[in-house]
Design a protein that fits this description.
It contains eight helices and 21 strands. It is of the alpha+beta class and about 425 residues long. A six-stranded mixed β-sheet has the order 18-17-16-19-20-21, with helices on both faces. A five-stranded antiparallel β-sheet has the order 1-11-10-5-7. A four-stranded antiparallel β-sheet has the order 2-4-8-6, with no helix packed on it. The protein is elongated, with a radius of gyration of 34 Å.
């Protein structure tokens, strides 16, 4: 519905005018002064409403306070109403609910008397219950003049807003150190000597050493210049691979039952926030979703915001198709974290392909723990899931035999043991190479 170009009579105004005129005619023809007394206020109110009819339509502006939210957060849909003639009495706003949103008031309807309340009360609280890209609005706005004589309505589709709901980040601390990478910058100690901050040893001076590194105590004692060498600093290169081939289980939004994609997206966001927060570079690849969704490894808060935005826009393609391509920017020593419900062989096959390139891979199992009980009305569904889980366990055992670790996601501490073991193996391998 587009905004009305002009004011139009309401049903009450039309009925009052017609009723008053009919009663007046009957009163005159039937010589009934009592009917004339009844008809006079009806016709008078209708005539007065017509005389005070607004001549220009009002100006309406709709907006939303925030276009980016996290799950569980709320914002406000506001309507600014400007009546240049001052003849509008009441304004009603109706905001229809959209998917995975809640409104306050629950029906999304607000009626305000402009003469007493003003247009500041024309607002509806909008709460979010699940990550994704949501379309909010537009609101239907109806204004009426004095005595409800005339009304004006507007539903401008151009006023709709696209709101990005970022996933609520699951708790994740990763107390264990990650696998060592081949980088020479960052906040982690390298296995090589360089211009870092952590002390390594004291050695004789060599051409090219900085003078500020001279260890004067050793130099004066031995009569030969010595310098204090340090370990080089390095960063970690983390690549998150998201399996979005299908969504397993039912989703009830934040605070309710979570589907496999809910667990995957929230866990990936938590892992990315942790590693970006400590200065590491994080990349992202989503396979099985609509469109190509990937981000090159980078660090910083802006990169984290882009990464969460890509996660919020994941939509399964509902087709078991995977091109099998690997990220082109997988460097030597990158730590690959794959998040998947492992209900299809594609995820483990991709993990095996990455591991075949000599990179450490950790597969995070994001299947809901109550998947066999999500449909209590169908006893055969639970049986079918138990059979499928047996096949799935066999595939996981084969992956473990091939050296690919699979860990279920359980929040904080889920990955510590495996990351610690991968860290020790990387140190042992680097020691042998030296």
């Amino acid at each position: 519905m587009k905004p009305e170009a002009c004011w139009r009579p309401t049903t009450a105004h039309t009925r009052a005018l017609i009723g008053g005129l009919l009663l007046a005619v009957v009163a005159v023809l039937g010589r009934r002064p009592d009917l004339l007394v009844i008809a006079t206020p009806l016709a008078g109110a209708a005539v007065w409403a017509a005389m005070t009819r607004p001549s220009t339509p009002p100006t309406v502006h709709q907006s939303i306070d925030h276009r980016t939210l996290y799950e569980g957060q709320a914002t406000t849909w506001r309507v600014s109403f400007d009546d240049p003639e001052g003849r509008v009495d009441d304004v009603a706003v109706v905001l229809a609910p959209s998917a995975w949103t809640g409104l306050e008031p629950t029906d999304g309807q607000v009626v305000v008397d402009l003469r007493s309340d003003g247009d500041d009360a024309l607002k509806v609280a909008v709460g979010t219950t699940r990550w994704g890209c949501r379309r909010v609005g537009p609101a239907l706005i109806v204004a009426s003049s004095g005595w409800a004589g005339f009304c004006w309505s507007s539903r401008n589709e151009a006023a709709a807003e696209q709101v990005v709901i970022l996933p609520q980040l699951s708790q994740f601390d990763a107390a264990a150190p990650g696998a060592r990478t081949a980088g020479l910058i960052g906040s982690n100690r390298s296995l090589r000597y360089g211009g870092g901050a952590e002390f390594a040893t004291i050695r004789p001076f060599q051409p090219g050493d900085r003078l500020r590194r001279i260890h004067w105590a050793r130099s004066l004692r031995t009569g030969t210049l010595h310098v204090a060498s340090t370990w080089a600093d390095q960063d970690r290169h983390i690549v998150l691979i998201i399996d979005a081939l299908e969504e397993v289980g039912d989703s009830e939004g934040i605070g309710g039952r979570a589907s496999s994609l809910d667990i995957t997206v929230r866990a990936a966001g938590a892992i990315a926030e942790h590693y970006v927060g400590v200065g590491d570079r994080v990349g992202l690849l989503v396979f099985g979703a609509r469109g190509v969704q990937r981000l090159r490894p980078a660090a910083g808060s802006q990169h984290l915001r882009r990464l969460l935005g890509v996660l919020a826009d994941i939509r399964p393609a509902h087709a078991l198709a995977d091109d099998g391509r690997l990220p082109r920017d997988l460097g030597e020593g990158a730590l690959v974290l794959m998040l998947s419900p492992l209900t299809t062989p594609a995820a483990l096959q991709r993990a095996a392909a990455v591991a075949g390139r000599g990179m450490p891979v950790l597969v995070i199992d994001c299947l809901p723990t109550d998947i066999t009980q999500q449909d209590p009305t169908d006893p055969y569904a639970g049986i079918a899931w138990r059979i499928a889980l047996l096949q799935r366990e066999r595939d996981i055992r084969r992956a473990a035999e091939a050296g690919i670790a699979v860990v279920p996601w359980r929040g904080p501490g889920s990955l510590d043991v495996v990351l610690r073991d991968m860290h020790r193996r990387s140190l042992a391998g680097a020691g042998r190479r030296r």
